[in-house]
Amino acid sequence: MAHAYTPGLKVTERAVIRKQRRLPLKGEVLAKVGDRVAAETIVARTQIPGEVQTLNVAGLLGLPPEDVEKCMLKKVGEPVQKNEIIAQTKSFFGLFSSTVKAPVSGSVESISPVTGQVIFREPPRSIQIDAYIDGRVVELFEAEGCAVETTGVFVQGIFGIGGETRGEVLQVADRPSDVLSAEEIDSSCRGKVLVAGALVTAEALRKAVEVGVKGVVVGGIADRDLREFLGYDIGVAITGSEEKGITLIVTEGFGRMQMAEKTFRLLVGHSGQRASINGATQIRAGVMRPEVIIALDSEAAGVEGYQESGGLEIGTPVRIIREPYFGVLGKVIALPPELHKIETEAEVRVVEVELEDGIRVILPRANVEMMEI
To answer: What does pTM read for this prediction?
Structure first.
């Protein structure tokens, strides 16, 4: 049988999920192997050096650079407060003086006798990494962080914005074909992760931010609504750093795209439970998908480790990721071994897919991704 590996979205009710939680710099790991942690538990922390500010003290005082150090009231390493006088000169028998004030709070980093510049460093910033998911610490990375493992629902989306957050799952759509409007969002949605249907509007997203919604999981969003909500066109870089006050996860694609029935039922079936979500997306090298994780009781009977599929096979559920069928779901019905010439004149391996409406299409294998359900 023909066999091919194609990266795919994972939609599974019970998977073993492991997340690495690493600091950007060396620091202190607070967790131990075997610890049970909640999503909010701080597992590692460090301090990032503050930014530096340069001040031309020689120029401000009208002195040769080599004389600056003699006029400094603060020495290297000493703390300073913003607008505190840090250098001073006197003239005419002490009747007149010139002073220089610190531009920031922090400490004196260096005083240059060559340039007359004084460098100040702002206070360090504390960085803390939480566990992100409820689970158990299974591995430590010395001075960097740890790995947290849980068993639970795992749903990947096709696109997202906004970073890590968490909240209780709330169903706001009766059917996966529904459109989420601003009128359906009220104070009862505060702190929740909303499971919507086929479309969310920019107006609805703004209302969600206004009432304090943590996240929205929806089948699709129109390009214009995304652009209107963000205030700019999204690029091809990694998403997830947008500071819009909400995380959005799109499961199917752009436009009005009905959420896959299995995905919808899986999510709404866990209404009232807490989900950890992340909208970070990168489609190119180092693929990163937005995700929804709902931790379950890892000690429950019948829990099995999630086994990643090896590749496309007859019957594999897939999603098409190129036009003209972008976002459409189907299943593999044939994997011809021979190369086929496509419109670009290139010869590629193809896959025959039966769409949900029964139509059969032949596509390059690179145009589909597996749906692991």
So the answer is: 0.75
